[in-house]
Design a protein that fits this description.
With 207 residues, the protein is mostly helical. It is built from 12 helices and no strands.
Length: 207
């Protein structure tokens, strides 16, 4: 008889639950246990519980990982993924949602990715990009774009994004600094810098 908690137990569903049942259970639990709803000591407990819930969902909501997990259960074991792997998968989902124009879904997945691993540069990069599409979020967008450059300082694409976000936030000097860094790493790099050149004109050419 099994005496260890499985991801199905965590979400409160049966092992033969449908994908929609799993998603419905996750939404309900995520809403009830989201750390933003708690403070002080209760927040820490909520964060731990939220991470477990999200880990369970990320395994069971993907057919391949769910099949592998079910095999592990049948052998008498239960598997799990670490926070960095959960973050990586969430960031990938968020990036795909952004490309598909599903902004709310992208925000949700990327925020969760950062909650699980604040050192996930791609999560910050894409979160900055999606926030750039939301009016009034220019400074938040820049903050995440900058965080991505701290984590991957030699990535010209992330530096270019930071330059564009700084420009959008009205911080011209900071924007130029990021653009200079991007071009110093890759002189031929032009991803996104065409618009930057148009915005700055001759001032851009001075450096």
């Amino acid at each position: 008889m099994r005496n260890r908690t499985t991801f199905y137990d965590t979400l409160g569903v049966e092992q033969d639950a449908s994908e929609s049942d799993i998603r419905r259970a996750f939404r309900s639990l995520a809403l009830a246990h989201h750390p933003d709803r708690f403070a002080d000591a209760k927040r820490a407990a909520a964060e731990e519980r939220f991470q477990v819930i999200t880990e369970a969902f990320n395994v069971l909501s993907h057919p391949e990982s769910r099949k592998k997990y079910d095999t592990e259960i049948s052998k008498g074991g239960v598997g799990s993924m670490d926070a960095k792997e959960i973050s990586r998968r969430l960031a990938a989902k968020g990036a795909q949602s952004l490309r598909s124009g599903k902004i709310a879904e992208a925000v949700e997945n990327l925020k969760l990715a950062i909650d699980h691993d604040d050192e996930n540069a791609r999560a910050h990069y894409f979160y900055g990009r999606v926030l750039a599409r939301i009016p009034g979020k220019e400074r938040d967008s820049l903050r995440h774009a900058e965080r991505a450059t701290v984590l991957e300082p030699n990535n010209p694409t992330m530096l270019t994004e930071a330059a564009l976000r700084a420009m959008a936030a009205g911080l011209k000097a900071r924007a130029i600094r990021f653009a200079e860094e991007a071009l110093s790493l890759d002189p031929g790099h032009d991803l996104g810098l065409r618009q930057f050149r148009m915005d700055l004109g001759d001032e851009f050419l001075e450096f």
